[in-house]
Amino acid sequence: MDVQFREYNPFDVWFWLEFDNIPSPAxxxxxxxxxxxxxYLGKLGGFNAENLQVQEEGLDISYMDYNDRPDHGAILxxxxxxxxxxxxxxxxxxxxxxxxxDAIALDVLINALRQLSLDYVSIxxxxxxxxxxxxxxxxxxxxxxxxxx
Length: 149
Hints:
Layout: E1 2-5, E2 13-18, H1 25-43, H2 53-57, E3 81-82, E4 86-88, E5 91-97, H3 104-119, E6 125-128
Parallel strand pairs: 1-6
Antiparallel strand pairs: 2-5, 2-6, 3-5, 4-5
């Protein structure tokens, strides 16, 4: 899967996926569930790079002391909104307001999409940000918000 970055604004970003073929309803469901799960984790603050205690501990986490007191000086890392997934031919796209979630969220998504592409639906290209000239983006995303509250 080729991953490309275009103009990137975390508060207004489109994810574009190119497929080998027009995705079937089952393939669309896999893809949409992946993005929805990723969004829920982000909405709950799961992509906060300021609190990666287990990762920073290393390989041996047996009997690790985990600091369960939140750092009140840290900025919350929350995603804000996700649009409805859309398809046109062999392309799919979805809009996000990633809020203050950290860039680790993008790595997690890319890793999951790579595996999804290997196992279920071939995704030769993922584009993060910008727009496709042959599929204009609407000027307002308000009407397209998915109801994930």
